[in-house]
Amino acid sequence: MKLNEAKQQFVQLWGAFGGAWGINKTMAQVHALLLVSTDSLSTEDIMNELSISRGNANMNVRELMAWNLVYKDFKQGERKEFFKAEKDMWEVATRIAKERKRREIQPLIASLNMLTDIDEDKRVKEVKEYVDMLNSIHSIVSKMDSAVDTLIKTEENKFFNAFMKLFKSI
Amino acid sequence: MKLNEAKQQFVQLWGAFGGAWGINKTMAQVHALLLVSTDSLSTEDIMNELSISRGNANMNVRELMAWNLVYKDFKQGERKEFFKAEKDMWEVATRIAKERKRREIQPLIASLNMLTDIDEDKRVKEVKEYVDMLNSIHSIVSKMDSAVDTLIKTEENKFFNAFMKLFKSI
DNA sequence: TAAAACTTTCAGTAAATATTGAAAGTTTAG
DNA sequence: CTAAACTTTCAATATTTACTGAAAGTTTTA
User: Fold this and answer.
1) Torsion angles phi and psi, residue B138, rounded to 5
2) Is B94's CB less than 7 Å from nucleic acid strand D?
3) In angstroms, rounded to a whole number, what is the distance separating the alpha carbons of residues B15 and B49?
4) What residues in A contact B111, CB-CB < 8 Å?
5) Nucleotides in D strand less than 7 A from protein CB
6) Is residue A8 within 8 Å of A42, Cβ to Cβ?
7) Is the CB of B146 under 7 A from strand D?
8) H helices of chain B, where?
9) Dist. CA B87–CA B68, nearest whole Å
10) Does any strand C atom come closer than 7 Å to the Cβ of B75?
11) Which residues of chain A make contact with B36, given a CB cutoff of 8 A?
């Protein structure tokens, strides 16, 4: 397969699977487009490449910046804003995980805590069964939360180690 | 909080977060309703409890059965079908993971393999950068795939061990 | 075999979500 | 300061997704 053909198909693929990772289709396409672009792109470039409106392009780029997946990249002598994607895919995975943890896992844990607090006799079978079920959901979700923390820590350590390497020769 | 109030709120909560786990709102509500019900429920019960149509109730129950999260439960002397949910939440997590692996991870891996196969000179920087990025996505997604396999294996072993216990006394 | 009891399907409709594009807002250059 | 270059907003609209309910299909009973 030719490079440019593959890149285009990757944009489509990433768009189609975006939904599965909690990211909407166009946002995922913009992300993919920036991932496969050697240079950073302007809003106009994105509009043209994906055939989408200015408003849509702008909105999705903002959202990608909110997820920390895309940065502004100012070019010498250009007034326009350009955008480039974080290309270290482990970093990307970490940031998506971090964001979803914040948006989904943590509020869920908080709600589960509320709903487990029943002021009826826990020796009654029906009460016990309910509380046990909620506790086990709580335990699973907490474990996922910890798993994400581990991933984040691992990435942070990688960064720290890379940073320390700079001083190794001293 | 009172048990019944909590149960109702749990149905709403599970519905709201369902989307995040790749499950649609009503399907998640039906699931939650069956999870908190002591007895198994008929289509009519579900329609009434959730104020949804017969078609909708039927469709979502079928879908939950396709995900292996809900079973038919025939009652003595009743002609109607009744449904009950798998209540072991680790088992539930495993089955959701299994299904998402099948629907999302595996097709994604297959597509990534296609898109990594570029017939241009890999010494060219642009080609190399693209291939490296795709390989690192591939590596991450494969790791998630393996993680799911581990989860499934763990559950299967639990089942096997429980099964073996039955013969312990022999 | 007929009709009652139930389940499934699906065309039409409703609801939710995403997109457009023109107008308003902001920044920079001259 | 003000016009040009650019970014952001948001009401209107389009698209996608989910839901309804009546009709068709199936199974059971008598």
Assistant:
1) -55, -45
2) no
3) 14
4) 13
5) 5-11, 17-23, 28-29
6) no
7) no
8) 3-18, 25-36, 43-50, 54-66, 89-100, 106-116, 125-165
9) 12
10) no
11) 130, 133
Map residue A52 onto helix, strand or coil. coil
Which token pair is A80?
């326009």
Q: Amino acid letter at B124?
A: V
Torsion B15-B142-A8-B114 (CA) sign: negative
Tell me the pairing of strands B41-42 and A82-85: unpaired
Of A6, A112, A127, the CB nearest to B115: A6
Per residue in B129-165, pLDDT (tens digit) is: 999 999 999 999 999 999 999 988 887 787 788 878 7
Distance (Å, whole) CA A42 – CA A54: 11
How does pLDDT run across A120-152, given as a tens digit for each residue? Answer: 999 999 999 999 999 999 999 999 999 999 988
- Give B170's pLDDT tier (boundaries 50, 70, 90): low
- Cα B96 to chain centroid distance, Å, stands at 2
